[in-house]
Amino acid sequence: MKLNLNLKHAVLYGFIAVISVVFYIAFGHHLSRILESIVMDTGVKLTAPLMYMSAFFVLFILTDKLYSLYTKIVANKSIELKANQLIDRIDVKTQRESESLINALLVHLESYRPYETSFVPTIIKTMVKVTLIIAALFFIDGFAASILLFTAPFIPLYYVLVGLQTQEESVKQATRFDNIGTLFLNLIRGKDTVKNTDSKETVINRLEDDNKDFVKETMHILKYAFQSTMMLEFITILGIGLVALEVALRIIIFENISFYTAFFVLLLAPEFYNALKVLGTEFHNGKLALGSFEKAQNIIDKPKMNTSYRGHTDHYSAEAENLTVGHDGKVLLNNADFTFDKTGLTAITGESGAGKTTLLRTLLGLHEPVSGQLNVLTTDIGYVSDQVYFSDTTIYEYVSAKNHSEDKVNDVLNRLNLFNSIDNLEHGIHTPIVNHDIPLSGGEIVRLKMARVLINKPAVIIMDEPTEFLDAETEQLVMKYLTELKETSAIIAVIHRRQLLSIADSHYVMDNGELKRGDAV
C-alpha cells in the first residue's frame, strides 16, 4: 500500500520506531529475568537487571514520545502544504465552485488529517514492532512465534477488505456533504427567489432527501466500523489464547520451557496482537480519511488558470492579436485585433450579455481567453468594478492602500463630495469595513472606489459602469475628474449611460463576437 509520505520521513519514522521497539524488548528481557529470579529463586543478583530494566523502560517511553511528536510535526506540515495547494487553486473560476473549495479546505482536509497524524505513523510503527517481536520470539520460543505467524495474516486480510469498502462509502459521504453545502448556500443566496416563486416546499424536500442519503452513508460506515472492531477483538483473543495454551502445555505437561521464556512470550504476544488490532482500527479510519481527501485532491489536481497569454507592450495600454474570449462554450469575442491608446478614455458599449465585463476581466488577467495574445502596458492596473466588495479593512486603508497620509485621503474624499458623509460616521475615515458591509449608499460606494483610483493614479485604469448609481450632479463631478485623469492615464471603461461618451477619446461597440470601432464623440 502506497503511503503519502516521502522517503526521507519514512526512513526516519522507521529508524525511531526500531529504536523504540528494541528498547521495549530489552525491557521485557530484564523484567523476565528479574521475575524468574524471584519466583524460581535462582539466586541471581537483581541490582544490575533492575538498573537495566529501569533504563530501558525510560528510554522506551522517551523514544515512543519522540516518535509521536516527530510524526505529528511532519503530518501538520504536510497538511499545511496541501492547504496552501488548495488556496493556490483560488482564481476567478473558483467563484463557480466556491462551496466545494471551502468544504475541501475546512472539512475534507481536516477529515484527512488523522491519515497523516495517526494512520501513517501507526502503519510504520506496527510493521516494525511486528517484525522485531516475531524475530525475537523465534530465538526465544519457535512454537509461539509460529502461532503468531500463522494467525497474524487474518487481521490485516480482514481490515483490508473492510477498509476498501469504507473508502468507497466515505467518498459517497463526502460527495453528499458537498451537495448539501452547495444547496444550502445557494438557498441562502436565492432566498428571495425561493420566496417569490413559492419554491419553499421543493427546496425543503431536496434538503431532506440529501440529508437522508448523508445519514444513510454515515450509518453504513459505522456498521463497517463496528463489524471491524468485533472481528479484530475475536481474532486477537483467539491468538493470545493459543499462545497461552502452548506455553501452559509446555510448562506443565512437557516441562521443557523455562519461566523466563514463558513469561517473556506472554509479555510479547499481547503486544504483537495489540499492535495489529490498533492497526486494524487505524486502517478503517485511514481509508475513511482518504475518501475525504479525494474531494480535496480533485481540486488540487486541477490546472491553475493560464496567464501566459498576457504579454507586455510599450506602445499601447492594451494590444490584442487574434483574441477569442468566451465562457461555458459561448464565444463573446472572436479573433479580435485591437489597440487601446496609452492615454485618454476608451469607452466600450454593447448590449447586455455581449461580453463587455468579461473582456475587462481578461484585460485584468482574471479571465483566461480561449485563444490569442493580449499585451498590456503594466500589471499595476486600477480597477473600479460593478461588484460591491471590500475586504476587511477601514475606509482609510482601502482608499490609501497605506501609501498616503490621512490629509491626502481627506482631500480626495472632499473633491468627490464624500468627506461629509464619511466624517459623520462614528469613526470617520477609520470606520471598519467588516464582511464587505459599508455604511454608504450605492453612489457613495462608487465614488469611494473612484477615490482609490484618483489618489494612486495608475497608468491604466479599468472601470465597469463608473457612473452607475450616481445622480446627475455627482456624475458631472466624476466626469470632471475623469477628464483630468485621462490626460496622464489610459482609462478603459464599459459604460451604459451615454453621457460619458461626451468625454471619450475612442469608442468601441461589442456586438455578435466583434469589437467594432464606433464614432468618437
Automatic annotation (TrEMBL):
Pfam families reported in the protein's UniProt record? ABC_membrane (PF00664), ABC_tran (PF00005)
Q: Which InterPro entries match?
A: AAA+_ATPase (IPR003593), ABC1_TM_dom (IPR011527), ABC1_TM_sf (IPR036640), ABC_transporter-like_ATP-bd (IPR003439), ABC_transporter-like_CS (IPR017871), P-loop_NTPase (IPR027417), Type_1_exporter (IPR039421)
Q: Give every ABC transporter domain span.
A: 318-521
Instruction: List all membrane-crossing ranges.
Output: 12-31, 43-62, 132-155, 224-245, 257-276
Q: Where is the ABC transmembrane type-1 domain?
A: 117-288
UniProt keyword annotations, A-Z? ATP-binding, Membrane, Nucleotide-binding, Transmembrane, Transmembrane helix
Q: Per its UniProt record, what PROSITE patterns does this chain match?
A: ABC_TM1F, ABC_TRANSPORTER_1, ABC_TRANSPORTER_2
Record-given protein name: ATP-binding/permease protein CydD
The organism encoding this protein is Jeotgalicoccus saudimassiliensis
Gene giving rise to this polypeptide: cydD
